[in-house]
Design goal:
The protein has 403 residues and is an alpha/beta fold. The chain has helices spanning 10-20, 154-162, 201-211, 226-235, 256-262, 297-315; strands at residues 27-28, 38-39, 43-44, 54-55, 59-63, 69-76, 92-96, 106-110, 114-117, 120-123, 132-133, 144-146, 169-171, 176-181, 185-186, 197-198, 218-222, 241-245, 266-269, 274-275, 281-285, 288-293, 324-328, 340-350, 353-358, 375-379, 390-395, 400-402. The strands form 7 sheets. It has a 6-stranded mixed sheet with strand order 8-5-7-6-10-9, with no helix packed on it. It has a 6-stranded mixed sheet with strand order 17-14-18-22-21-19, with helices on both faces. Strands 23-25-24-26-27 form a 5-stranded mixed β-barrel. Helix 1 (10-20) packs parallel to helix 6, helix 3 packs parallel to helix 6 (297-315) and helix 4 (226-235) packs across helix 5. The radius of gyration is 30 Å and the shape is elongated.
C-alpha cells in the first residue's frame, strides 16, 4: 500500500497504527521483570488460600465451647509451624498470633480482651470463631486469579508470588532505537555557538519513554544524509521501533522517508492533518515499525503522546489511553487553522471536577510551552472554545487536586 500523498485526518492515522501494530509474541520472564507488562495467559489458583484455618489476631485459642473465666495457659502455637492435632482441652488456652494455623474446634479471644496472672489467663468475652480465617476463605483452588490481558501492577505481582507464578507469561516491552538528526544539533552538555542548537529531542524522548513505563532504548545522533541514517540502523542492536527526530518534512535535507524505503520499510502515512506535528511519518517493515518525527520539541511531545505511545501500547498488548472530558478553565484564542489541534495544557481536579487550562503556545519550536504540561486538548479544526466548555483531553502525566 502506498502512503497517501496528502495529509490524513487524525482518526485515519489512529486506524492505520491500530491495524498495523499487533501485540508481540509472549515470553516468560522472572517475576521481578514482569511489572508493567500484560499477562499473556490466565493464572488459576492451584490450592486454597489460606491453605489451613488461621488466626487473624494475636490472642488465645480455646475450645469452641469455652466460657468467660480463668483458664490454664498451656504454651503457644506459632505461625509457620504445622497445626496442632487437636483444639485446646476444656479449661486450657494456647497463645496464638496472626497467621497461626489452627486445628478444627477452636475459637479465639483477642489479647486485649484477656488478663494474665502467671500461667493463668482470664477471658473476658465470649470466644469467637469469626476471628478465624477459614481455609479457602480468600481463594479457592481452581479460582481464576488473573485473566489474560491483565496489566501487572504491585497487587498483581503479589498475587502471582502467592501462587508461585514466578515466571509469568507476558507480552514483552518494545525496544526502541532513537536517532536524532541535523548538523546544527550539538550535545546538551557541551558548548554551543549562536548558530547551533543543543539537543533537546534526545533527552525529551528518553524522558517520555521512561515516564510511560518503557525502556529509554538506544540513542544516536547522525547528520541528515541517507548514508548516515542507514549506517546507524545497521550498526544498532535489534529493535522493534525506530524513532527518527527531524528529516520527516519535505526540505532538501529531509531524507527520513528515502532512507526508510531503501531499508525496506513501507511508508503508511507521511503527513497528518493536525498541528503541531503535521509531517509525522509512519512506516512498517515486517515486525518493525518506524516513526519520522517533526524536529520541533512541542511537536515531539505532542506526536509521542498522541501517536507513538499508541503504537508502543499496542505492541505491549495494551489499549490506547482513552481521552477524558474536562471543563475548559480559560478560553482559547480564535483560530481559522483548518487542521485539528493538540493544544498543550495543564489538567487538574478542581473542586472535584476535571479542569484543563490551555497554556500559551507560540509555535511548535516554543520550548517554554512545555513547562508544566500534563495534557493535550484535542480541538477540531478552526475552533475557538470559551471557558467552561467541555473538551476532549489526552492525559500526559500526573494530576494535582485542589479544592
Amino acid at each position: 500500500m502506498k502512503a497517501p500523498a496528502s495529509s490524513i485526518p487524525v482518526a485515519e492515522a489512529f486506524a492505520l497504527i491500530d491495524s498495523n501494530v499487533a501485540a508481540a509474541a509472549a515470553i516468560r520472564v522472572p517475576l521481578e521483570r514482569a511489572f508493567g507488562r500484560v499477562l499473556a495467559e490466565p493464572v488459576v489458583a492451584e490450592s486454597d488460600h489460606p491453605p489451613l484455618d488461621q488466626s487473624s489476631i494475636d490472642g488465645f485459642a480455646v475450645a469452641a465451647n469455652a466460657e468467660i473465666g480463668w483458664l490454664n495457659e498451656e504454651g503457644e502455637w506459632l505461625p509457620g509451624e504445622p497445626p496442632s492435632e487437636a483444639a485446646p482441652a476444656a479449661g486450657e488456652a494456647r497463645r496464638v498470633y496472626t497467621g497461626t494455623p489452627l486445628p478444627p474446634g477452636c475459637a479465639l479471644v483477642m489479647m486485649e480482651e484477656t488478663e494474665s496472672r502467671g500461667k493463668r489467663v482470664r477471658i473476658n468475652v465470649e470466644p469467637s470463631t469469626e476471628l478465624i480465617r477459614g481455609r479457602g476463605g480468600s481463594i479457592r483452588s481452581g479460582d481464576l486469579l488473573l485473566d489474560k490481558g491483565t496489566p501487572i501492577g504491585p497487587g498483581e505481582t503479589a498475587v502471582l508470588a502467592s501462587v508461585g507464578a514466578t515466571r509469568p507469561s507476558v507480552i514483552p516491552a518494545p525496544t526502541v532505537l532513537h536517532l536524532t538528526t541535523g548538523r546544527e544539533i550539538v550535545p546538551a552538555d557541551g558548548p554551543v555557538q549562536p548558530w547551533q542548537i543543543r539537543d533537546t529531542n534526545g533527552p525529551l524522548i528518553r524522558a517520555l519513554l521512561t515516564q510511560t513505563g518503557h525502556s529509554p532504548g538506544a540513542h544516536r545522533h547522525v547528520d541528515e544524509s541517507v548514508e548516515s541514517l542507514l549506517a546507524a540502523v545497521e550498526q544498532a542492536d535489534p529493535f522493534d521501533f525506530l524513532f527518527v527526530s527531524g528529516g520527516s518534512s519535505v526540505g532538501q535535507y529531509d531524507n527520513t522517508a528515502v532512507a526508510l524505503e531503501s531499508m525496506g520499510f513501507e511508508i503508511l502515512f507521511h503527513r497528518i492533518h493536525a498541528r503541531p506535528g503535521k509531517p509525522l511519518l509512519f512506516a512498517r517493515r515486517g515486525r518493525q515499525w518506524a516513526f519520522g518525527l517533526p524536529g520541533n520539541p512541542v511537536a515531539h511531545f505532542t506526536v509521542f503522546h498522541a501517536f507513538l505511545q499508541r503504537a508502543l501500547r499496542s505492541f505491549a498488548g495494551k489499549p490506547p489511553i482513552p481521552p477524558l472530558q474536562a471543563r475548559l478553565g480559560a478560553p482559547t484564542p480564535p483560530s481559522t487553522d483548518p487542521r485539528e489541534t493538540f493544544w498543550p495544557a495543564a489538567l487538574a481536579v478542581i473542586n472535584g471536577m476535571l479542569e484543563t487550562t490551555p497554556r500559551p503556545w507560540l509555535h511548535s519550536g516554543d520550548l517554554a510551552a512545555l513547562r508544566g504540561i500534563n495534557a493535550l486538548i484535542h480541538f477540531p479544526a478552526s475552533t475557538q472554545a470559551p471557558a467552561g466548555q467541555m473538551v476532549s483531553v489526552l492525559p500526559c502525566g500526573g494530576m494535582e487536586g485542589k479544592g
